[in-house]
Design a protein that fits this description.
The protein is of the alpha/beta class. A 7-stranded mixed β-sheet has the order 9-10-12-11-13-15-14, sandwiched between helices. The chain has a 4-stranded mixed β-sheet with strand order 1-3-8-5, with no helix packed on it. It has a 4-stranded mixed β-sheet with strand order 2-4-7-6. The radius of gyration is 25 Å and the shape is globular.
Length: 434
């Protein structure tokens, strides 16, 4: 994870506008009042709305600043943040990446971070709306950064970005890893509105027969029990058929992530999940032997590439249309729901045991689950409870099974109600750690 997050920011996804510091802008800042102890520049920034979205969903940001010869303090005010509550009110700071310093994404390099309602008018509040066009019903994120190195290229983001290209790089690394390759199959679930491929992984022990260790004489396989000259192809064929039948009876688990592009932590979580599940540990091997996992690591690929906070290219929140997705307007959710229906109801001697939808939370700490609905059986709480016992980062107290009217259109509710999956959850991971 460290190597991925410390590499240079990706330039092919999550568009980042550039700002420039110049002597003239510094002089104008000084003319506004008494000369500061060091040069100081201030920017008022307005986030673009999500593509085709009338609601806005302004939360995710990712932009670049090039300072030239300027050294001094930069004050930023992002004045159209939509959410009332934010972890910026509890210590979270924007992440910064300095190309010259080359230390990766850093969490605590910014200063004086404030988050407030535009109509609250604190000492660092925005100008009146008539002057700047700032809406009183939105919120401002204010923060500062001190530039100490000339000719730097600085990136600021709500969270270390995880791009579409990074996902494909991870999948290519897993395909090139001799220990991981035999245990998963990669295919294309569908194409997005923007015609981007949406990958689907199916993971289970030795599911990729062509890469299974039998052919290499691995320990425990039939070919390792005798010398190469004495191997009976019929025995190997029988073993593989036996394994195929065993896999066909294994229960299924579906995991998806990144329905909301701005919730980048979901991608980091699913990356860790894939590395663990395809790793060499005894626990991972036992899980692969017991289950077949269907994983869609990035659902809203268009939203990720276009830098949206929540919506697809159609301006739709994908996690609010699961009850009745349209194949034209919502092609990914439509294909994904059909895939889950097929594996949940179309297979014999097995069923879809669990559905897990990974998200990121911008207002709460820790990790926690949202259950399918209030009427779910009490056993539905067992998995979150066991997770909280095994890992102190997960809070069972923050888990809940409430379901408002809009949440009855979410993946967790629809998969439980329409597909009859008993254990269906949203997993939330905080953008500000445990």
């Amino acid at each position: 994870d460290g190597e991925q997050s410390s590499s240079a920011p990706a330039r092919d996804a999550s568009p980042h506008p550039s700002l420039d510091c110049s002597p003239s802008s510094s002089a104008k800042a000084a003319e506004a009042g008494a000369a500061p102890a060091m040069p100081e520049v201030e920017y008022e920034l307005h986030l673009d709305n999500d593509t085709q979205s009338s609601v806005g969903h302004t939360q995710w940001f990712y932009f670049c600043l090039r300072n030239g010869d300027f050294k001094g303090r930069i004050n930023f005010r992002i004045v159209n943040m939509r959410k009332k509550k934010s972890l910026y009110q509890h210590g979270l700071q924007p992440f910064c990446y300095s190309v010259r310093k080359n230390r990766g994404w850093e969490a605590f390099e910014c200063e004086d971070t404030l988050y407030f309602a535009n109509n609250a008018n604190p000492s660092r509040s925005v100008r009146p709306s008539g002057d700047s066009g700032v809406r009183a019903d939105l919120h401002t994120l204010a923060f500062s950064y001190t530039i100490s190195v000339a000719d730097d290229e600085l990136y600021f983001a709500a969270y270390p970005p995880y791009t579409y290209s990074m996902m494909h790089t991870l999948l290519a690394q897993l395909e090139g890893h001799a220990a991981a390759r035999p245990h998963f199959l990669r295919s294309e679930l569908c194409r997005s509105i923007g015609q981007l491929p949406v990958p689907l992984l199916v993971i289970s022990e030795a599911i990729n027969a062509s890469e299974a260790p039998h052919a290499e004489g691995a320990s425990g396989s039939p070919s390792s029990m005798v010398s190469g000259a004495d191997v009976d192809p019929a025995i190997i064929a029988q073993e593989r058929e036996k394994e195929r039948r065993q896999r066909a009876s294994r229960p299924l688990i579906a995991v998806i992530a990144r329905q909301h592009p701005g919730e980048v932590v979901g991608s980091w979580a699913v990356q860790g999940f894939l590395k663990f599940l395809l790793g060499p540990s005894a626990a991972a091997k036992r899980l692969r032997e017991a289950f077949v996992f269907h994983v869609v690591p990035m659902v809203n690929v268009d939203g990720v590439v276009h830098g949206n906070s929540r919506c697809t290219l159609a301006g739709v929140d994908p996690n609010r249309i699961w009850h009745d997705p349209n194949p034209i307007i919502h092609p990914v959710v439509y294909a994904l729901k059909n895939h889950l229906r097929n594996i949940a109801q179309g297979a014999t001697n097995r069923n879809l045991e669990m559905f897990l939808d990974m998200h990121g939370h911008s207002a709460k700490f820790g990790c926690f689950f949202y259950g399918s609905c209030p009427t779910a059986p009490i056993s539905n709480a067992l998995f979150p409870k066991l997770c909280s016992i095994m890992n102190s980062d997960l809070s069972f107290e923050q888990c809940h099974w409430r379901c408002s009217r809009s949440h009855k259109k979410t993946a967790r509710y629809v998969v439980h109600k329409q597909l009859n999956v008993k254990y269906s959850y949203t997993m939330e991971c905080s953008l500000f750690g445990p």
